[in-house]
Amino acid sequence: MKPKVALQLWSIQEDCANDFVGSLEQVKAFGYDGVEFAGYYDKTATEINALVAELGLEIAGSHVPYEQLRDNLEVTLDFEQAIGNRRVIVPYASFSTLAEWKEFIVTMQTISQAVTARGMNVYYHNHAHEFLEIAGTDVVDLLARKIENLQLEVDLYWLAHADVDVAAWIKAHKTAIGLFHMKDKQAVLEESTELGAGVLPLKEYVAYAKELTLPWLVVEQEAFQNYSPLEAAQLNVKTLKQLIEEVY
Q1: Residue ranges of the Xylose isomerase-like TIM barrel domain (predicted)?
Q2: For every one of its 248 residues, what pLDDT tens digit does the chain have, with 9 covering 90 and above?
């Protein structure tokens, strides 16, 4: 089975803030199969349900801040369950000491149990700092080993940015990986750019996804040099779907 392609809506956050419905209409028109939410722009669960159903978009997952899960767990999960989301993804966490990360792990155990009890899956999405800030410790590896039922949404851009051996790391963590974030990296400025316009081996990444039988590849772009976020989103889905056809 070929993976479906979703857009992480953080990529077009200003467009979503200005016109959420219109932005999702554009995403569908560009050829995306689904979306990964990064906030709901004051829409109710009923409105989200109606919108994605009307547009024919699937929900690949949702980035839900750790603090929101920690402080309002049941209410937050009520909403996620109501919209039909199956993947609750913690998008970011950062602590200056290993002791603080271990406290995070304890809280995430509780969150994981609550998410799993509702028939959903909990994920952690990495950046680069988890590999760099605590000397001698791969924090993402630690989270995957210590938090029961945790899956990983591996951001390949940030993995490469941290000078991790991407192929070896993916092989070592293949049983925990559930999603890939696909983005490309400029050589000089070292910021994200359109897929195919940078230096990362995207076709290899899609081949890894095939080996792992991942259900979704999620496009994300955080910096824009030559195109608007919506223009970049349109280019990105075309490039990624072409790569999927070549690999699969």
Answers
A1: 24-241
A2: 999 999 999 999 999 999 999 999 999 999 999 999 999 999 999 999 999 999 999 999 999 999 999 999 999 999 999 999 999 999 999 999 999 999 999 999 999 999 999 999 999 999 999 999 999 999 999 999 999 999 999 999 999 999 999 999 999 999 999 999 999 999 888 899 999 999 999 999 999 999 999 999 999 999 999 999 999 999 999 999 999 999 99
